[in-house]
């Protein structure tokens, strides 16, 4: 150990200290010294900082990224929404829940009427749809990149007949083989016969889905093969979106029953993963999220004005086959809509009625609300990083 310390250079010590600092401090320190800027911008340092952040995630603290909005309606029937990006730093000691809220300023373009939808997350970067635009954004650094328009999503037909293309699902993650980030988008197609006013249709014939992949290195989309039933429906759970883990994107979908749909970012192929059967117990699967280094799915059953939740974890997925293990049962709980993530071994973050956030202890059933107004639209377990998006 002493030999390692003696051989350590002053620059090594600087790198070690800087790699443990939060992104906001590192962005400021880039302007202090040119040598520090060179270190902080280097790929090796970015990877080291990300690794340290991942290690911190396994401690008793957690960082939650959330998006809130508050709509103001005026007497002239116009409306405006205020949007808020925040990070919540959570910790527990002696069964007491502590948290502080840090508001963020992310200056990407947005109109008053635009919705913000979360569609993927990987290494501190989130994939969003803001209005009609797809963005990659690192909330910790405030950087964002607007992606080019799709070649498969077409404008609405102007005539009475036409092809209608509808966005149905999007995922984002890291291709470990090519060492680059990718966005995958799934599109539903149908032939439509519209009424004379062009706002409603008489007949709608479903056609095969199409899909495309965007890569950050080429900054462009390309069409790829997708083979799924035209009857497939994608669950638009506001707090789920897609999940990324170890080179795969996952979605929750429905086609004569619920299942998980996956995409291998390396070979760019899709696969279907069956969920365990819970029909006989009146449980219904409803969404997916990450639990440590596994994909988890939850099902629920309504009883006596309360919800009873089961959380299942996917084991040993090899791209084709998998098995599921029931992790825990939570509830019955009243006024709770969705489980979001297990941020500690026995604490699960949940979203309640009216956009309220709560943390539930799976052992004791104790539910503690986080008082964070106004309405929460979505929230997710987050790791702060300095991974660039530009």
UniProtKB/TrEMBL annotation:
**Superkingdom of origin:** Eukaryota
Q: Name one Pfam family in it.
A: FBA_1
Q: Where is the F-box associated beta-propeller type domain?
A: 88-336
Q: Please give the name of this protein.
A: F-box associated beta-propeller type 1 domain-containing protein
